[in-house]
Amino acid sequence: MPSTESDAASYATTSETDFYELLELPSSNTPLTPSLLRKSYRKASLKWHPDKNPSPEAAEIFHLLSIAYDVLSDPATRAAYDNARNARLARKRRSEAFDVNRKRMQEELESRERGAKKARVDGEDAEERFHQLLEKLRAEGAELRRKREEAIRAAAAEEEENKKEKGKEDEAMTDGDGEMVDGGCSGESRFSEIDRTLRVRWKRKGNEHIDEQHLRSMFSKYGAIQDCVVPPTKPEKEKKLRSALIVFISIVAAHTAIHDALDPRLKDLIWASGKEPDISHNPPTPEPCTSSPKSKPSTPARATTTTTTTTTARGPELNRVSSFASFAGTPRGSPFNKNAAAQSPDYESITLMRMRAAEKAKIEARIRKEEEEEVTQEEGKV
Fold it and tell me: Where in the sequence does UniProt note compositional bias of the Basic and acidic residues kind (predicted)?
C-alpha cells in the first residue's frame, strides 16, 4: 500500500489492475460517492480477508483492495488512475480490433491458399483423368481395329472357301471332257450380266441408312442377288441422289423386281442397259455337242430334213430298205432333240416369268370385270 499521495498517484498510473472490477463498482463514468466506495471496500475486505479466506491469493487480493480504496478515495489520484485506465482500455480495444482484422486477413489468406491448392489439385486430377480417358480410347480403337481386320480376314477366307467349294461343285457337275455329268450340254444363258442388272436411285437426304446391306435386304425377296455395287461418294462432290447397281442371278428376279411396286424410299428403278431385255422369242438352239473329239460332226438340220423328206417321198419300198443304220444316234444338241430348248438355263426362267405374267394378267382382268359389274349394278340402282 503506498505510503504517500505521490506514491499512490504513481502506483495508480502504472498499475494494470482494474480497481473498479476488484471492488465491484460501476465504471469510471458513473459518479462514485464515498459511502458507496466504503461499502464496497468493506464487503470485498470481508470476502478476501486472510483470516476468513484460506485461499493462497487471498492475502494478495486483500492488499490490492487497500490500494484500490486509497487510489479511488482521493479525487486527484482517482482522476490520474481513470486517465491511465481509459488509455489502457483504448489500447486494448485497438489491439483487439487489430487482432480481429489480422485474424480476418489471415483467414482470407488461408482461404485463398486452400482455393489455389484445390484448383491446382483439381487441375492435376482433370489432366490425369484426361490422359486416362485418352489411353482408354486408344485401347478401344486398337481393339476395334483388330476386330475389324479379323472380320475382314475371316470374310475373305470364307469367300475364298466358297469359291473353292463352288469350283469343286462345278468340277463334280462336269466329266473329264468338260460335259455335264447327266449327259446334257452345259448350255450358257443368252442373257448377259448387264441384262440382269438394275439401276436404282434414291434421295440422299433422309436416306443415309441405305447402303449395300440394306439394298440386298430390300431386293432379295425377288430372287438371289449376284452382286450389289454402291459407289462411294466424296464429301466435296455430294449430289442430291445416290445410285447403285443390283445384279440378279436370274432374269426372272430382275424382271419381277422392276415390274413390282416401287418402294417409296426409292426414286426410280430402271434397267442398267437402258432397255428391257428381249424375252419375246424362244431361246436359240444350242450348238450340237460332241461326245468326244474323235466323233463325227452331226448332219446339219437342213440336210437331215431334206433327206427325211426325200426318203418319205420315194415310197414304202424305199422306206423299208432304208433303216437309217448308216446314221449315228441323234445328237443331244440336234434340233430333233425335244429337250434341246429345255437344256438352256433360260428356258425355265422365261417359262416361269411368262406364267407369272399370265397369272397377273388373269387377276387384273378378273378385277376389272368385277369393278365393271359393280359400276353396272350401281347405275341400275340409280
Answer: 161-171
Q: CB-hemisphere CA count at 13 Å for 318?
A: 9
Answer whether 7's CB lies under 8 Å from 76's CB: no
241 near 165, Cβ under 8 Å? no
Check if the beta carbon of residue 241 is closer than 8 Å to that of residue 270.
no
Q: What confidence score (pLDDT) does residue 347 get?
A: 64
Q: Are 111 and 39 in contact (CB under 8 A)?
A: no
Place of cell 435386304: 217
Neighbours of 298 (CB within 10 A): 21
Distances (CA, A) of 154 to 147, 150, 157, 214, 225: 10, 6, 5, 22, 21
**Final residue of a structural domain among 237, 271, 305:** 271
Range of the domain at 50: 5-92
Q: CATH number, domain at 37?
A: 1.10.287.110
Neighbours of 234 (CB within 10 A): 6
pLDDT in tens, 162-219: 888 877 776 765 544 444 444 344 445 677 888 889 999 999 888 888 899 999 999 9
Q: For residues 245 and 273, is the Cβ–Cβ distance under 8 A?
A: no
Residue 118 cell numbers, joined: 484445390
